[in-house]
Amino acid sequence: MPIFVLYKKVIIPFFALYVVIFFSHASFATDVTEEYNLLRQAEIYKFSQDLFETGEYYRAITEAKRYYSLFPDGEYSDDLYKLIGDSYLMAREWKDAIDAYESFIFQFPTSQYVRSVYFNTAICYIKIQKYKKAEDLFERIIVNGAGEDLYESVLWKILLLIQQNRVDEVESLLEDDFIGDIVLQESGIIEKTISLKKNVKYKNPRLAGFMSAVLPGSGQVYNGRYQDALGAFVLNALFISGTWLAFDDDNPALGLACSIFAIGWYKGNIYGAVNGAYKYNRKIDEDIFRGGVQNFGLDDRNVSTNPGIKVFFRFYFE
Questions:
Q1: What is the pLDDT of residue 17?
Q2: Do 138 and 296 form a contact (C-beta atoms < 8 A)?
Q3: pLDDT(20) > 60
Q4: Start-to-end Cα distance in the chain
Q5: What is the rounded distance in angstroms from the CA atom of residue 117 to the CA atom of residue 98?
Q6: Residue ranges of the alpha helices (H) in the chain?
């Protein structure tokens, strides 16, 4: 058979068949690999969600991080990246949750979960008492308009302003028709909370310190800490009288030792009075804030991304 005929009838058809088989096999292998990856992603996603929903937050974090390292552009990347922050939130690791949420915003600025992440980050800032940062995040949600968390964000912003003694700003905020309509049903509770805050009688730390400097224990009486007042008065009286008696008895060594203790207790008595006034004021603010959280119905929040499951974070006070 001539070479040209052989080439035309045998070699070319064989080569064409080889090309078809090769590329068909490659396409099939690619399809199988993609299908396996999708199944693997779904498996890790489901397992991470199950761990989260059963309260095994640190294991959920580990699985979510494993998913992201394997499939950084996977179908569930933003879900599981958010789950890392949610898990830290539920585990009450506030600073770790903030770091995770801020990283989420950087990685997924257009995700459907951005508003929810802003909200959860604000809650973490409240727990570490960075109220201004929390307020700014709630404001960002409010400015973006209608949507998830708007109602709660407005209430939180109002409560944080009250907590920071910025009552005038609350009253100005409520004059805005948009805000006023949102919290119309809660207006009575808001007004009551504002009135309570306005009529608070705080203790003056400087006055408490001055009183205890003049008469040990009197600053503690001013703060309503009567047992501390008795202890401060008795101990200071004992050391001061002991110092005087030692020197009067020509015992300078004992007098010097007693005077060192007397000075220490005297300073401690003043510091205790000042600190007690601050504690008293913080306690009042915390009680009003605690009451606001409960009265506004802000003590429960669902943090699950799975629509069929409710995982509630309860805002409690230590």
A1: 54
A2: no
A3: no
A4: 95
A5: 9
A6: 3-6, 12-53, 57-70, 77-90, 94-107, 114-127, 131-143, 150-163, 167-174, 177-182, 187-198, 205-214, 218-222, 226-248, 252-295
Neighbours of 81 (CB within 10 A): 24
Alpha carbon distance 39, 4 (integer Å): 51
Q: What is the per-residue pLDDT across 45-77, written as a single tens digit (0 to 9) for each?
A: 899 989 998 899 999 999 999 998 888 888 889
The beta-carbon contacts of 194-199 under 8 Å, at least 24 apart in sequence, are 194/162, 194/167, 194/170, 196/288, 196/291, 197/162, 197/165, 197/167, 197/288, 198/167
Query: Shortest CA distance to 273 belongs to which of 200, 212, 318?
Result: 212
Q: In this structure, is residue 1 part of a structural domain?
A: no
pLDDT value for 244: 73
- Answer yes or no: is 99 within a domain: yes
Does residue 209 sit in the same domain as residue 291? yes
pLDDT tens figures, 284-318:
888 888 888 888 888 777 666 665 556 667 666 55
Structural domains in the chain (count):
3
Amino acid at 199: N
DSSP secondary structure letters along 166-227: -HHHHHHHHTSHHHHHHTGGGHHHHHHHHHHHHT-----HHHHHHHHHHSTTHHHHHTT-HH
Q: Indicate whether 247 pLDDT > 80.
A: no
Q: Give the containing element (helix H, strand E) for 313.
A: strand 312-314
Q: Quick check: is 224 in a domain?
A: yes
209 and 288 fall within a common domain: yes
129 with 180, same domain? yes
Structural domain range at position 89: 31-111
Residues 237, 266 within the same domain: yes
CATH number of the domain bearing residue 97: 1.25.40.10
178: in domain:
yes
- Residue 255 pairs in a beta bridge with none
